[in-house]
């Protein structure tokens, strides 16, 4: 059965759409922010749902919090080998490996090597520098004029952070995220000569950085990999190295959606903004709630290594199993009134915005620090940030980022 496509109907009707063969994966649903009600219905009627046909092939959707956690914790039967997004790796990148697409013991070894470069201790040493950078960005924003928060704030802050984590030349800070984005472009896109040229430049630059850090190490990610005995041989497999670098840089990109999503959320829930203004100490509780509400990583995929049962459904060996973190983060059984932002939510820290278990996003501490400092500095400066138009979201079923959030800060 072909995937359901209700774009031509105007406003999709989540309640009347037949669930037999229904495909939640089209990127346009997420771009138009119309996926939430479908997930509400799936959690209620068919929480472990089989889609027999989609652009990615057949797959199972896991939509409830407890089932997602169960899958995440069972890496032996739900493997990350091959890929962790709903589609398969394009043939030209079938050698691009990283610890996110590996299972223990490979995953454990490589993650352990990288962790010191993004640990709370390392970030604490960077906090003053990060705060100064954020303050500078905010002080440079126009007053009384409309501008794109995504480009002026979210992209700028995440690229600054990537430069710090990799000790990358600050004046070239937007190159690394750009290279990563080109590498993970949707599998359906052809490998054009231009794209190949960009990827080759990316590989050559990372190899050059590796050689420099091997000779003169620092506290950055590449130094950590180059000087760990278990990962030092990665230089012999450049695509493996590129995959790991892309993953770590991409982990920081999880922050981008939340850095923009907080502005959108406080616009939709002005009472929560007033609470935060009245008591800035609530920022620490607001950060996990913003991440829960935004769900910057929409899904992760696993592949079954044997026949297995989830939520009363028997899933055959070799099946794609897609954990929809965005749905789990609004599961009524765990988050009362989950569609609403509540900065005092007592269990907000239990969100799935960064995944769960051994594959929890390596950039979670980075993202949380950026969010905390950003809102602390905003509260010192701005009485409000006005949303001037409907946000334009990324056409992606993986990343809940925005292309454009037009705002105005009153003069």
Explain what the structure shows.
This protein is of the alpha+beta class. It has one domain (7-408): Orthogonal Bundle (Cytochrome p450), CATH 1.10.630. The chain contains 14 helices and 12 strands. It has helices spanning 27-31, 36-45, 65-73, 106-114, 120-139, 149-166, 175-183, 193-215, 221-226, 238-268, 270-278, 283-294, 325-328, 364-381; strands at residues 48-51, 59-62, 78-79, 146-148, 299-304, 308-310, 313-315, 320-324, 386-387, 392-393, 402-404, 406-408. The strands form 4 sheets. Strands 1-2-8-5-3 form a 5-stranded mixed sheet. Strands 4-12-9 form a 3-stranded antiparallel sheet. Strands 6-7 form a two-stranded antiparallel ribbon. Residues 1-11 have low confidence and may be disordered.
Question: How would you sum up this structure in a few lines?
Answer:
This protein has 411 residues and is of the alpha+beta class. The protein has 14 helices and 12 strands.
Q: Sheet with the most strands? A: 5 strands, mixed
Task: Count helical runs.
Answer: 14
Quickly count the domains: 1
Fraction of residues in helix = 40-55%
Fourth-tier CATH superfamily name: Cytochrome P450
- Strands ordered across the widest β-sheet: 1-2-8-5-3
Order of helices and strands: HHEEHEHHEHHHHHHHEEEEHHEEEE
The oligomeric state is single chain
Averaged pLDDT, please?
Answer: 88
User: How would the global form be characterised?
Assistant: globular
Query: Structural class, from helix and strand content?
Result: alpha+beta
How many strand elements? 12
Low-confidence spans: 1-11
């Amino acid at each position: 059965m072909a995937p359901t496509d209700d774009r031509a109907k105007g406003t999709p009707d989540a309640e009347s759409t037949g669930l037999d063969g229904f495909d939640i994966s089209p990127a346009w649903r997420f771009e138009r922010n119309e996926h939430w009600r479908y997930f509400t219905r799936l959690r209620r009627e068919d929480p472990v749902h089989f889609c027999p046909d989609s652009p990615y092939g057949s797959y199972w959707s896991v939509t409830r919090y407890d089932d997602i956690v169960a899958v995440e914790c069972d890496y032996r039967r739900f493997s990350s080998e091959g890929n962790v997004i709903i589609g398969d790796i394009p043939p030209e990148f079938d050698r691009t490996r990283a610890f996110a697409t590996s299972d223990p013991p490979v995953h454990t070894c490589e993650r352990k090597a990288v962790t010191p470069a993004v640990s709370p201790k390392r970030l604490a040493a960077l906090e003053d520098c990060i705060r100064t950078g954020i303050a500078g960005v905010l002080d440079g924003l126009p007053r009384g004029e409309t501008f794109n928060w995504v480009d002026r704030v979210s992209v700028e802050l995440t690229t600054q952070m990537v430069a710090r984590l990799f000790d990358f030349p600050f004046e070239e800070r937007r190159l690394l995220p750009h290279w990563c984005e080109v590498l993970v472009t949707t599998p359906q896109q052809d490998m054009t000569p231009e794209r190949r040229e960009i990827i080759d430049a990316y590989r050559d630059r990372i190899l050059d950085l590796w050689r420099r850090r091997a000779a003169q190490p620092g506290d950055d990610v590449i130094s950590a990999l180059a000087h760990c005995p278990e990962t030092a041989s990665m230089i012999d497999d450049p695509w493996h190295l590129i995959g790991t670098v892309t993953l770590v840089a991409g982990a920081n990109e999880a922050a981008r959606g939340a850095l923009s999503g907080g502005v959108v959320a406080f616009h939709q829930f002005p009472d929560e903004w007033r609470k935060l203004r009245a008591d800035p100490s609530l920022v620490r509780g607001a950060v996990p709630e913003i991440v829960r509400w935004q769900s910057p990583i929409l899904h992760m995929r696993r592949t079954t290594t044997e026949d297995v049962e989830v939520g009363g459904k028997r899933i055959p060996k070799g099946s794609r199993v897609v954990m929809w973190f965005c749905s789990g983060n609004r599961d009524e059984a765990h988050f009362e009134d989950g569609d609403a932002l509540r900065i005092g939510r007592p269990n907000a820290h239990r969100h799935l915005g960064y995944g769960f278990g051994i594959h929890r996003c390596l950039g979670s501490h980075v993202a949380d620090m950026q969010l905390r400092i950003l809102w602390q500095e905003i509260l010192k400066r701005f009485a409000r940030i006005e949303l001037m138009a409907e946000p334009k979201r990324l056409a992606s079923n993986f990343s809940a980022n925005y292309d454009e959030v037009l705002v105005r800060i009153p003069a």
